[in-house]
Amino acid sequence: MKIISPKLTYRLLIALSASVTIYLPLKAQTVSNTDSHEIVTKLADKLVDVYPFPEISAKYKEALLKNEASGRYNGLTEDELATKLTADLRTTHKDVHLRVMRNEATYKNMTAPRSERGHNQEDNSEAKANYGFKKVEIDGITSTAYIDVPGPFYGSQEAFEMAAASMNMAAYSKNIIIDIRHNPGGTGQMGRFLAAYFYNPGQEQFYLNGFYKDRKHDEQEWTYAYVPGKHMPNANVYILVGRGTGSASEGFAYAMQKLKRATLVGDTTAGAGIAGTFVALKNNLIVFTPFKMVVGPNSNVGWEGTGVIPDVQTGKEDALLIARKLILENMLKTSADSAQREIAQWLVDDSKIPVNSSVNMKAKYGAIIGKYNNNITVTYAKGDLLWNRVEPGKPVESFVIKEVKPDVLVITGLNGNIGPNVSRAYINRDAKGNIESITRKTLLGNGTISASSQLLKKIK
């Protein structure tokens, strides 16, 4: 056994102690009392200067100065000071927009000379977010475009190009679903841009009204007279909203609702109805300062504090599924095309399949078990009726049969390249109620039901 001398042991301990200290976290930067005073004073004065409600900004200033005089903001780190200031402001008056935060990168971009600012980093963050637009999905069967916009709403050229590309992909759909359930806001210009697609060129709409502390600066916000691509003045518009919908995205939903141009589906939104901007304070602290109250056209009422209340509240149900059901119901009620109504009814009936899962298929439809023309057999195995496709030289393909509604069965998975439930078997009965044959139909991806239905007769 190797023995280490006491002298060497001591040296090792010293060396280990020195090495350990390298990995100890640095103590968070404490804000001096002088800097804290400057931060509080600048924050209070800025709110008095720009906050749209003078009586509230006066209360903000009074509370901040009183807390500072009591030493409440002394000896805090930058993060602690930001947290405490935000909490005190919201205790005075709850404005979910107003918040102080520590953000070294943003502070530097706001205060450093232009040559030292990190514009490339900002641009990269927008690109990573795909400029606020995630995906566009087209459902040709119901002529529905689903546009997922988790945001935020950016105001760069690239963001508007992405918005135009998304809207042009949706341009020939009769139904448009715009999903902003997780969009925290951004620039109000993007909402106005999107809204303009739902009016003819030149038919600008009074979208929202913004007023400032100095009412001489009040401004009317209108949709744009022109946006690139095809306009959709006759499309049925559904906007999905929720607790994650905030600020400018709320404005888009609110304006479209007040203009009676969209049906809002989902949950009540965040209730952040005062527009603002970032202001640099000191010591890497910045504040998002509200400066413009946004309300409806020709109104003093907005969504600040209350949120935007949807036309169809979904509770725990998925707002997207509810919107798709609304589209089908509308097709059934309003479409003059009997083929379109048949397709809508087909899709509505599909929702009943899980409810009918307890049906005893053998007891109810056992008479269809047997061999049919076109290499089709119907068998029973392990509690399921099976639709089997038998082709020479190929393995037998089997698909479970379920009830959609009486005498209408779905062959689950058949033609799965088109969709999960696009193949049906319709039972034909004689005057006595006996099963004579089965007619098979397929709902094609182009939104039509196959005209050449297969009439399958059992081979005895």
Tell me the number of strands.
20
β-sheet strand percentage: 15-25%
CATH C-level of the largest domain: Alpha Beta
How many structural domains can be distinguished in the coordinates? Answer: 3
So how many helices? 12
The CATH architecture term of the largest domain is: Alpha-Beta Complex
User: Fraction of residues in helices?
Assistant: 25-40%
SS-derived structural category: alpha+beta
Task: Give the low-confidence spans.
Answer: 1-26
Over the alpha carbons, how many angstroms does the gyration radius reach?
32 Å
Shape: elongated
Q: Say which CATH homologous superfamily of the largest domain is assigned.
A: 2-enoyl-CoA Hydratase, Chain A, domain 1
Q: Give average pLDDT, whole number.
A: 89
Question: What name does CATH use for the topology of the largest domain?
Answer: 2-enoyl-CoA Hydratase, Chain A, domain 1
Cross-sheet strand order for the largest sheet: 19-18-17-16-15-14-13-12-20
Distance between the termini: 92 Å
Q: The biggest beta sheet, please?
A: 9 strands, antiparallel
Brief characterization of the structure:
The chain has 460 residues and is an alpha+beta fold. It contains twelve helices and 20 strands.
